[in-house]
Amino acid sequence: MASSPSLPIYLFTFNCARLLITPSIVANHLFSALDPSSPPPEIIAIGLQEVSPISYGFLGGEYLSPYLDQWSSVPHLASQSLHSINSKFPAEYVELGRHTVGMTALFIFSRRPERVKTLRFGAVGFGVWGMGNKGGVAAKFGYSTAGEDGLESINEDINVTIVATHLAAHEHCCSDRNKDWETLVRGIVFETATQTAPVITINSESTPLLAGNTADSSSLSGIYHPGSHLLVMGDLNYRTSHISPTPKDFQTFPRGTDHFLDFFKRDQLTRERTAGNTLHGLTEAPITFPPTYKYLEDVLSLLGDPEGGDKRSKSHEDVFDWSPNRWPSWCDRILWLPVLQSSLKAGEEGIKVHKYTSIPAIRFSDHKPVGLHISLPVIRSIKTVGGDGSDIDLRENPPFPIDQDWKVKRYNAEVKEWVVGYVILMATTGNGLAAVGCAILGAGMLWWAVTGKL
């Protein structure tokens, strides 16, 4: 009997600290969270937070492109390197699309792009005035299992929605993070078109490289959708305390793995998720890695030699260089919506986690990246049973309805982002300050000339 089709995916989330990366340095560690004994990923999703300075994120275009393009080359370099060691590992992953909202970005890559169908993106900001200093980006697509080894007679799609997000910061803002999640569920909307046409134009912030959708009329769907997997990753920012640490507290920060269990008992995300206040219905693999935040940044690591290794005496894989003003916390997480047994055939496996861990060797940020290697099955028709609601799938019953004004709100926020982005750019760069100075000087000379004639 042939095995059931599944889709191996690798998700990587990282808060980049607004720095322009060196692709070869990051590529050297990108696949550190892969399980070498499991099938290599068909899809790679990279979710980034603080991918650039805020003004560049708001302005987009040529300001943001250099930051995105550096990340675009990372999977290519990483796969080439791993393929040279293990010929069974794919030699290339093709970028299918990218999308941003403010400083949050999501990339989708595929080993076999011809199998990916109808890639669409959606986004929402939940910063000040709905701007994207904090926000969420999502990709939705189908993956065809037709022609897989041993599955020639099977032609079933595996539908997937992947979310990359950055929620509210600071220890005391737990309720704000919960509210951000609600805004995300309401505000990330996909327009399902009734006709299709190839995408011809490409821009740097949103580049679907597959067949896209254009239509006169469309229906809407959110991140919870019947028959679709949901995976959420990002700097979720849930902490291990509601208040900032004192100098005395700093002395109690974990210095070894034996301390992690005690700290994780205080995890806000676990508590809020269990209480039904956030990430509704989602689950997570066991946490076995150290807190991912907040470390002292080591920007010089971007200048290292990926071939020769780190020439300094201390490694951040061994030493925890905590920042004293924030509690060590598991801010960076990846979760997914489980599949009900009623949506699987008898004897079929559900979602299978191969590996879930952080990547401490990347250390130029105050965060550590997190990776999840996971395989997703086909979701078939849902049969809701159980009068107590225990077997009700949130794909059919989302925790929040779609915001019908989502498009107007996003447009208004983008206008504000453009204005604020230029103001910040003018105030924080040498060229901007020079332009402002020239404008003031010109206005002063004009005023002098006019008043001198009167």
Question: If you had to describe this structure to a student in words, what would you say it looks like?
Answer:
With 454 residues, the chain is α+β, with helices and mostly antiparallel strands. 25% of the residues lie in helices and 23% in strands. The chain has ten helices and 15 strands. The strands form four sheets. Strands 3-4-2-1-15-14 form a six-stranded mixed β-sheet, with no helix packed on it. A five-stranded mixed β-sheet has the order 5-6-7-12-13. The protein has a two-stranded antiparallel sheet with strand order 8-11. Strand 3 (94-101) and strand 4 form a beta hairpin. It starts with 5 loop residues before the first strand and ends with a helix. 41% of the residues are buried.
The CATH homology group name of the largest domain:
Endonuclease/exonuclease/phosphatase
Task: Order the strands across the largest sheet as they lie in space.
Answer: 3-4-2-1-15-14
C-alpha-based Rg, rounded: 23 Å
H/E series: EHEHHHEEEEEHEEEEEHHHEEEHH
Number of strands: 15
Strand percentage, roughly? 15-25%
State the name of the first-level CATH class of the largest domain. Alpha Beta
Secondary structure tally, helices:
10
Mean pLDDT: 85
- Using the coordinates shown, work out and report the CATH topology of the largest domain: Deoxyribonuclease I, Chain A
Q: For the record, give the distance between the C-alpha atoms at the N and C termini, rounded to a whole number.
A: 96 Å
